[in-house]
Design a protein that fits this description.
eight-stranded mixed sheet; elongated; alpha/beta
Length: 317
């Protein structure tokens, strides 16, 4: 009998140790993923990176500074966070406007190449929001596009009002910005929003984190991801399953261009095919040969510009 009691106690201890280990791992995952110590607020690092990676587009940015055409604006979100954006008026007055949304641990200036595409090459007004916990925007955590979709709705109104109240607007995002774009596309958007461009966005936060757990840490989704999702729900008000670009894009009734590199392993290329299939109505898909994650423009800049131009020209008059 004594041995039986000892065995039960030992088993209970092991169960408690396992449970605490899982909880600690899940807590660590949420902290690491949603409050990273990344470069998202380091503008000097961003400037050096973009100068090296996109010299032509970066030189255009410098000219904008000199001409006082790279301007700032702010909104306050539902939680009281002050959120920042840059905006760039077009060279000539136009109603064509692009909202360009950055990715995970990035900031507005990490999207200067896409701003260049719209602002310099296509003659659009451009607004570059900085999502919560990024750039000069406040916020206690990365929202992975989910809460950000509500903020982008607000930025749409700001951009429309900045340029006369009768714009034709495209929303274009890369990586987490693309997931944000798809998430907002499932909401009721103003009539002046004509189309969307998503470049290498994930199907859902759950799918993206599940892939990271497997490839980086060789861990199963259950129970670590389930508990991490619950922690996110308690701390930030949304779960990983809830934050689904796939479910949102299925509700989108406006045209969308899907772009993805065929060498993307960070947001695996299979995701774009699932997203494209879910989208009803007008849509196009371009798989970029040789492009890794978020490098479609870098890999094929002329073709990228031509693809985007041909698409948005059909809907932005």
């Amino acid at each position: 009998m004594r041995n039986k009691h000892l065995a039960i106690r030992a088993l209970l201890v092991l169960v408690v140790i396992f449970a605490l280990s899982v909880l600690a791992t899940s807590w660590y995952m949420v902290n690491t993923a949603l409050t990273p110590n990344g470069p998202q607020r380091d503008m000097l690092w961003t400037d050096s990176l973009m100068a090296a990676r996109y010299p032509t587009e970066h030189n255009w940015q410098r000219e904008l500074y000199k001409e006082h055409r790279l301007l700032d604006t702010l909104i306050t979100d539902q939680e009281g966070n002050r959120l920042h954006a840059f905006y760039i008026p077009a060279d000539s007055a136009t109603n064509k406007t692009a909202i360009v949304v950055h990715g995970y641990t990035a900031n507005a200036m990490r999207m200067i190449h896409i701003a260049y595409l719209y602002g310099h090459q296509l003659g659009y007004n451009v607004l570059l929001p900085e999502l919560e916990y990024h750039g000069a925007s406040e916020g206690d955590a990365v929202q992975m596009g989910w809460d950000d979709r509500i903020d982008v709705l607000q930025w749409m109104e700001v951009a429309n009002n900045l340029w006369g109240g009768h714009t034709d607007m495209v929303v274009h995002g890369i990586s987490m910005g693309a997931a944000t774009t798809m998430m907002v596309s499932g909401e009721k958007t103003p009539d002046y929003v004509k189309c969307f461009v998503e470049d290498c966005g994930y199907t859902s936060v759950w799918d993206e984190f599940a892939g990271e757990l497997k490839t980086k840490y060789s861990l199963p989704t259950f129970p670590v991801l389930n508990i991490a999702s619950l922690i996110s729900q308690i701390r930030y008000g949304w779960s990983f399953q809830q934050a689904s670009a796939l479910k949102q894009v299925a509700k989108c009734d406006k045209p969308m261009l899907f772009i993805h590199g065929d060498k993307d392993t960070y947001v695996p290329t299979w995701m774009v095919h699932t997203l494209y299939k879910a989208k009803r109505g007008t849509k196009e898909l371009w798989i970029v040969p040789g492009a890794t994650h978020a490098f479609a423009y870098k890999t094929a800049p002329t073709q990228y510009t031509n693809k985007v131009k041909a698409f948005v020209d059909r809907y932005n008059q």
